[in-house]
Amino acid sequence: MWKIAIIDDDRQVLQGMKMAIPWEELRAEWAGEAMNGEDGLRLVRETRPDLIITDIYMPVMNGLDMIERLRDLDFQGKIVILSGYSDFEYARQALRLNVTDYLSKPVSLPTLKTVLGQTLALMEEEDAKRMERNELEEKLRLYQPFIEKEWVKSAVSGTLDVSYKQENLLPEPFRFWLGVRHVVVGIEIVRDARVEEMSLSDMNLYRFALSNIALELAADIFPSAEYTELYGTRSALVLHPAPDDADGEELRMRLRQLGAALIDSARSFLKLTIHVGLGSLKGSWRDIPDSTEEAFRAIELKERAAVKGYDLYTLPEGGRRATLARPVKFYQELAGAIKAGQEALAHEIIADYLERQEREGLTAPADLQMLAGELWGVIAYSLYEVGIVLDDLFPGRHVQSEIGGLTRPGALSVWLKEKVTVICNSREWKGSSKHRQAVDFMLQYIHDNFAEDITLAELADKVSISRNYLSNIFKNVTGDTFNNYLTRVRMEKAKELLLEKKMLVYEVAERVGYKNVPYFSTLFKKFTGMNPTELAK
Questions:
Q1: Which residues have a Cβ under 8 Å from the Cβ of 125 and sit 6 or more positions away?
Q2: 203 — phi, psi (to 5°)?
Q3: What is the DSSP letter of 60?
Q4: What is the 3-state secondary structure (H, E, C) of 308-341?
Q5: How, if at all, do strands 28-34 and 2-7 pair?
Q6: Could you tell me if 343 and 425 are in contact, meaning their C-beta atoms sit under 8 angstroms apart?
Q7: Are 146 and 102 within 8 A, CB to CB?
Q8: Residue 498 CA neighbour count, 13 Å, CB half
Q9: pTM for the model
Q10: 481 φ, ψ to 5°?
Q11: Neighbour-count burial of 125, counting CB atoms closer than 10 A to its CB (0-12 exposed, 13-18 middle, 19+ buried)
Q12: Which tens digit of pLDDT belongs to each residue from 54-80?
């Protein structure tokens, strides 16, 4: 209901207006009345009407002075002037004060009804736009963490558009990057038999747990860090050493210490084998992708172990630039294009990269075949992340035999493009790719807010998809139900907290979103096979 206040020093006008306005038809109600501007100000402060109908000539304070005071007080409602004086100067002042309409007394009932109807319709339209804007702002606020994580991924992998490399465009949480140095630790999960047999939902949970471990270990050694998932089983930890840290033996020692702790923790807590590569220290955030390339190139070459007995590698001295033949940026761009179903863009990325390799003389058949194998793995995992098994799209194909026959960059380019075309035009891909972004948001939201009271209905509202349909989409893409996945994330975090042995069971339960400790213990036993008290001892 819209609230309308009437301000006029003529009591007959007040009574007549109250009787003449078709309140129910306009879906409006009377908010109150006043007989001078000063009382009118008081009335507006107390009742906050949506619309004011006011005279100009009144004792104590006239209507125009009252309106000016209201605007100074940031009154946003509509104002209609009803005056016995049709004076141009009054009309000009009314226009300056953003008055909606100016009527002369006496006003006919049809005119009054029309003006009020138009004014309230305008208010409804503005209210709808305001609600739409508020909803958009709320969605942007909710998506902001997701957007920021994508920004970090692009900044780390080198896929950030050049227009976003201006210092004033750094997202607020990362403005501190301007005053610190940076080094990347590359992490690769080894695809052993256990990893190959994991479901998508299990793999997501292990990657989530690995990110928590990496950030917690980094926090003990470095002042700040960010973690981002890359393509396939690779991720990157970006560290920002303290300003007084020199790029010397002490810093390298702490990096080796962190890398070894990562490998040990992944093996002990997650039963995962990981390889770790260390990039070099960079003075500018724009050079972070170079450190990323160095970290993963070190893993690929495996020529220089940083710690004896650990799969922890650095590049040989003097070989950092010349050996960057398979950049992270290329893999990331290609994986992104395939996951988005952008066939033409994927073709363009492939052609551009292989032409560059040919110009640089990197055309040896063995190198090309190794590159083809790595790219096939990237494509396979990118599809696996959206619930599609690559072998199902190429039944009976002898992919490894085809790779063995690739001896020229041109042949590799044609082969890759043919495969991408088959993928992007397959029925399986078209049926699942368009909803991947919504599921990506849901997964990130769960991982960031698992301790809150999250419901599928709430997330359905956030991504503007019906609850039942979203439930099916989530199950198809992840292979798990929403509730089960949320519980598994909570149990994984609880297990991590219990292994630290710094909190009691009831404290852990509350930390991951459960106030009922027996219920938490039952769930924990169901998902982990052990009682939480066993780990807490």
A1: none
A2: -65, -40
A3: S
A4: CCCCEEECCCCCCCCCCCCCHHHHHHHHHHHHCC
A5: parallel
A6: yes
A7: no
A8: 25
A9: 0.60
A10: -75, 160
A11: exposed
A12: 888 888 888 888 988 888 888 888 888
